[in-house]
Amino acid sequence: MELESPNFFGKYSRLSTTLRQPRVRRTNPAVWFAAVLCLIFSVLLIFFGIATLIVFLTIKPKNPTFDIPNASLNVVYFDSPEYLNGDFVLLANFSNPNRKIDVKFESGDIELFFADRVISSQKIQPFTQKRRETRLQPIHFISSLVFLPQDLGVKLQRQVQSNKVNYIVRATFRVKAIAGFIHMSFWIHSTCQIEMTGPPSGVEVTRTCMTKR
What we know:
Elements: H1 6-20, H2 29-59, E1 65-80, E2 83-95, E3 102-114, E4 117-124, E5 127-129, E6 134-147, H3 150-161, E7 165-179, E8 182-196, E9 202-212
Antiparallel strand pairs: 1-2, 1-9, 2-6, 3-4, 3-5, 3-7, 7-8, 8-9
C-alpha cells in the first residue's frame, strides 16, 4: 500500500490552521467615541443623582401646606329642585415651612364639593414663595345652574335651613422645590372639610385640612 506524501499532510495542516483562524476586525473609532460618551454621561447622571439625594436628605424638605383660615358663604338658592346657584369665597393660606428651600407653585386647581359633587372650581396663577413665607389669597367660587341630583339638592337645602352647611375643598398643585442649583418638581394634594353657617352671611365654623404628596 502506498503512503501519502508527508508534504501533502504539511500543506493540509497549514490550510486547516489558516481556515480556523478568525478574521480580526478593527472597531470603528466612532463606536469607541459613542461608548465613551455614554460612559461619561452615565457617571455624571449617577453622580448628580447621588448628590441630589444627599442634599435633600441633609436639608429634609417639607411639603408646602394649604389651609383655609376664613371663608364666607354669600348665596345658595335653586332655580329648580336640581339646579344650584351659589357664591362662596375662601381665604387660602399657602405656607412654605422650609428654612433652606424656596418653592414655586407652577400650577394649581382648587375644587369646591358638596358631598361628592363638584359645584365650582378655580385655577391659581403661578407664584413663588421664599423660605418660611406665607401667602394669603382669596378664592372666589361661583356656581351657576350647577346640576345636583334631587337627593343632594334636598340635603343642601336642609343644611341651609339648619344653619350648618358642609363643603369639601380639594386642591392639587404642581410644586417645584428650589435649593441652589438643584430643582425638583412634585405634586401635592390638599383636602379641607369646612362647616359654614347659612347664607347670606355664612361664616366658617370649623375646618380640617390635610396636605400630602
